[in-house]
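user: can you give me the structure for this one chain? tokens are fine.
assistant: on it. calling the predictor now.
[tool input]
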Amino acid sequence: MVAGLRREKILIRGAIVLTLDAADRVLRPGDVLVEDGLIAAVGSVAPDVAATCDRVIDGSDRLVAPGLVNAHTHSPLSVVHGAYDLLNHRASMWLFQAYTARRTPREVYVSAMLNCAEMLLSGTTAAIDHFPEQAFGPADVEAVVAAYRDSGMRALVALRIFDGEYADILPPSGSLPDDIAREVARDNPFMPKSVPELRELCTDSIRRWDGDSGRIRIGPAPSNPMRCSDDLLTMCVELSDQYGVPVHCHLLETAVQTEIARRRYGTTMVRHLDDLGLLTPKLSCAHTIWIGDDDIELMAERGAVVVHNPESNLRGGSGIAPIPAMLARGVKVGLGNDGSCSGGDQVLQRAMRLATMIHRVSEPDPSKWVSTRQALAMATAGGAAAMQGEGRFGAIAVGQAADLALYDLRHPWWIPVNDPIHQLVQSEQGAGVDTVIADGCVAVEGGRIAAFDADAIMAEARDMMPAIKARNRDLFDLVERVGRAVIV
């Protein structure tokens, strides 16, 4: 399915350049030179350099910006667009299992490639993939790594592990009705593995694939710390220290998770993570909604990264993360779309726009609102920090990776260009992306995927779901009954 990725020497000439660099420069116009996968020059490039380039892009009607970083997605859910409505977090989590369990490695690959296509077409060049939705093996990891290798994207494949019960998605009573509980016990989609098994799987995956293609990282990713024993969480610390890999997790997505953590540990989940040594700059935490001021201060002090998911937080009725308070206290914040069925799509521009809006109605002081520049920072430098790539990508600066998106300014929402930052966040919805350069390779050209045969992937993905639904008919029947029990 790979059309071929080749690094090129590329000159983008005379564009509006949104650098997001240390000086926060906006060049009107400016040139960007790409060579050996890196940004070689920004500003004014001598005319004779064009003759040495493989490709010269006329930027006279283009905005060039750093490629966006989707710091929390779930590639298995790419084929579950629009599969439900009016389900809370508990019920939707069960439904996801019926859609994603028992996949073949080929289905894993196609799902990941479909997710990559959606991200690339809207200007996202890097992602944290919290993968997968349930127990998995080496062949599944190999398949998702192959997808990111073939797509040209930069990725952290965050291995979603757990060895405990998903207590937070049980009914408020704490247990399922007896008849349903017996069925779940017979065919539990959340069947955990032991800590030794998970250590072996994670260690093998890190050794085999961390650093693949120079773009792909592998790291342990507790599904949610409260679904993991302290032994498993300590294992994550040990692997992170031994191999220098990032750690990713869901954290405090729902109010019940906060309540369970308090009962179980006698303190907050954040403080418990700190006690175990997990709360470091190598940890990124998706959602992080139900958190108080003291824990926000602690996360800022330790340098842990929060990944804001405003769309899925609202759609599942989970809550609104206190992002303004986090930013005010210096917490690093990234941005994510979550799974496509949770947030609706993989268009990070929509998440940026929503991130600027959701707090304004409850805060009368506009100076405390999330600005368009802050939202754009979440989708670039904040995501890079979550991927341990701070200073290596997320800005247009000499020496950083050549991960770039070019927007066609001839679209109505760009006319006239009053302020490129405001318009990128407030008006752009990904449809204006014309060209994407990932690691110095042209991945999207003329608004179409150039890195691989996206038409073939989409055709294969269309045929996947009927087969999965037939194969998992028993799970769909089971989770429908479970969903009715947990929807309250």
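assistant: here you go. The domain at 10-66+402-449 is CATH 2.30.40.10 (Urease, subunit C; domain 1). Residues 73 and 338 are 4 Å apart (CA to CA).
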